[in-house]
Write a structure and sequence with these properties.
Layout lengths: L9 H6 L7 E4 L3 E5 L7 E7 L6 H7 L1 H17 L5 E4 L15 E5 L9
Antiparallel strand pairs: 1-2, 2-3, 3-5, 4-5
Helix pairs in contact: 2-3
Bound molecules: guanosine-5'-monophosphate (5GP) and zinc ion.
Guanosine-5'-monophosphate (5GP) binds next to β2.
Length: about 120
């Protein structure tokens, strides 16, 4: 169920520290940690501590929490001294989503092309 911890969810396990991660920021409602397979010199994931399958489901159920994730993404960018960065929410396997716990990718530290692949 949305908002409930999922036993088989990797990111729920990162929230509880069952799975270790390089955590860069934590708030009451969010955790930010470095991606294990970075696609840019700086690649941090920001997640809500509670489980939603993707960003839109999170925003529909808990808009304030979705705002927390966005604000934290901005804080990560500021801490990493990125003036330009890309925030990405892959949604659905066809768009490259592999972990079905809502997360923002914060990518930067290099030039970015548009459109993305
Ligand atoms: P998605 O493909 O769902 O948009 O993003 C999932 C991200 O999680 C990928 O970029 C992947 O590299 C990252 N990832 C997968 N497993 C782990 C892990 O165990 N630890 C960390 N820090 N990142 C992970
Ligand atoms: Zn989860």
């Amino acid at each position: 169920m949305a908002g409930e911890p999922q036993a088989d969810c990797l990111f729920c396990k990162i929230v509880t520290r069952e799975v270790p991660a390089d955590v860069v920021r934590e708030t009451e409602t969010t955790v930010a940690f470095r991606d294990i397979n970075p696609q840019a010199p700086i690649h941090v994931l920001v997640i809500p501590k509670v489980h939603y399958p993707h960003a839109a489901a999170l925003a529909a159920a808990e808009p304030q929490l979705a705002a927390d994730v966005l604000r934290e993404a901005g804080e990560v960018a500021a801490e990493e001294k990125m003036e330009s960065y890309r925030m990405v929410f892959n949604t659905g396997s066809g768009a490259g989503q592999t972990v079905f716990h809502a997360h923002a990718h914060v990518l930067g530290g290099r030039g970015m092309q548009w459109p993305p692949g």
